[in-house]
């Protein structure tokens, strides 16, 4: 599955609580070039990116990992 598909599944499937997951994405200049955000912060899931507050667009190809509420890897970029 691609990150967009995983995030849509987490958001819309009744077996998952979207807010309990976090996204780790490539953010050059951040420590280890990674930034971690809670899915609570995601305003919208678009076709090619997801949107954070202040109209910040993050392309799905920058998603490295999606973690569950315990910090375990739910999805990892191949």
What does this entry show, briefly?
With 78 residues, the protein is mainly β. The chain contains 1 helix and 7 strands.
Description:
The protein is 13% helix and 37% strand. It contains 1 helix and 7 strands. The strands form 2 sheets. A 4-stranded antiparallel beta sheet has the order 2-1-6-7, with no helix packed on it. The protein has 78 residues and is mainly beta.
| Helix segment tally | 1
How far is it from the N-terminal to the C-terminal residue, by CA? 10 Å
Strand proportion: 35-45%
Which structural class do the helices and strands define? mainly beta
DSSP E strands, number: 7
Strand order of the largest sheet: 2-1-6-7
Task: Report the mean per-residue pLDDT as an integer.
Answer: 97
User: How much helical structure, as a percent, in the residues?
Assistant: 10-25%
Order of helices and strands: HEEEEEEE
Assembly classification: single chain
Task: Give the overall form.
Answer: globular
Unreliable segments (pLDDT under 50, ≥5 consecutive)?
Answer: none
Main sheet summary: 4 strands, antiparallel
Rg for CA atoms? 12 Å
Q: What labels would you give this structure?
A:
78 residues, mainly beta, 4-stranded antiparallel β-sheet, 3-stranded antiparallel β-sheet, 1 helix, 7 strands, 13% helix, globular
Helix/strand layout:
Elements: H1 3-12, E1 22-26, E2 34-38, E3 44-45, E4 49-52, E5 56-59, E6 63-67, E7 73-76
Antiparallel strand pairs: 1-2, 1-6, 3-4, 4-5, 6-7
């Amino acid at each position: 599955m691609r990150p967009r598909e995983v995030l849509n599944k987490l958001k819309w499937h009744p077996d998952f609580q979207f807010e309990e997951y976090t996204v780790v994405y490539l953010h050059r200049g951040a420590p280890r070039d990674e930034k971690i955000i809670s899915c609570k912060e995601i305003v919208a899931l678009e076709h090619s990116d997801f949107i954070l507050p202040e109209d910040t667009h993050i392309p799905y190809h920058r998603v490295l990992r999606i973690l569950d509420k315990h910090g375990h890897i739910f999805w990892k970029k191949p």
